Fold each of these.
Amino acid sequence: QKEVEQNSGPLSVPEGAIASLNCTYSDRGSQSFFWYRQYSGKSPELIMFIYSNGDKEDGRFTAQLNKASQYVSLLIRDSQPSDSATYLCAVNLNSGNTPLVFGKGTRLSVIA
Amino acid sequence: NAGVTQTPKFQVLKTGQSMTLQCAQDMNHNSMYWYRQDPGMGLRLIYYSASEGTTDKGEVPNGYNVSRLNKREFSLRLESAAPSQTSVYFCASSDGQHQPQHFGDGTRLSIL
């Protein structure tokens, strides 16, 4: 079964700490990986995407992809209360022309 | 700089009424999607259109129909609304199935 799994949380971290969000996926042939942030009552907003094994950095955000272990992570450095949101992992499974599969999201709470 | 525009933003219906949710994108994207989001369930794909002239069922298509009117517009119709269809509906678009999706602001639909 094609799945994208995330811990629902809440994940609580103190302000200034590193938040680590994880996502595992079932299809070993998956090619494209995306992280979205969703504030309560708002729509999902794309924050990172990664296609190749390794790390990709953008400001305080780092996406890490390990295809052999079938996981993708999002690290948020110097976490701020404004980072408190639900983070959705999305994977494009390499099984043809099919849409992204979204995880159910991890709720992050950054405590001031 | 509109991106993906959904109308209406809020709607209350009575059981059995019909309703069409409208979605338009100005990014010249080929693919468009309709999702519903319920507490604890994550984003669930209702229907998608990989390109103009094509539509396909997603995970939860029952009770819905769609029309890809042209490259810009993708509508979702509830023919006979049921309380189980109370949800937040998001439209999204992307340049292709392996590309990031961009979301509209959502329609909050309540069916009494």
Amino acid sequence: GAVVSQHPSRVICKSGTSVKIECRSLDFQATTMFWYRQFPKKSLMLMATSNEGSKATYEQGVEKDKFLINHASLTLSTLTVTSAHPEDSSFYICSASVLAGSDTQYFGPGTRLTVL
Amino acid sequence: AQSVTQLDSQVPVFEEAPVELRCNYSSSVSVYLFWYVQYPNQGLQLLLKYLSGSTLVKGINGFEAEFNKSQTSFHLRKPSVHISDTAEYFCAVSTASGSRLTFGEGTQLTVNP
């Protein structure tokens, strides 16, 4: 149980285009989803927290107009990287928790974004 | 605010040897503690967690960790490692009031034959 999927697993795009990454909880309803960014050989950096039906809460330094997050249902959250640039290239990972304030997050397999 | 320090960025060991991956944290409130494992180009998998109760926590794949409040540590141990344990290991902390995770920098465990 508690499986989280991400799509696509990897994407290559041209500079200036927008890319959408989906995060789905397959066998549970996720009240809260998290989006992380991971640079090579580095730890995970929390970008934003999203609760179903409300606006995402972004971490300091993360541009909300650049990284659009939508949590339209209890099983789906999307991250759209708008007008992507090479510096946006990274590994993006989502996670989901069952209950607000729950102690455990379940992580997706990640999406490798490469911007040319 | 919380912080996590993983004292070793890389730990090379031989197969069947014991291993300890060190983790220290700081927080002004009570915390939950986690260890996650990440294989190349994959997401994170939960190894074990400490919420309350017994300070010795057993997880998957033969790993265990001990919560030491006085030393603010949560070191991960395995008595005998396998080649397949080669991966990046992350220690993380969250507060009891929510699930926002703060991660350490990670420790690359490499098991050599």
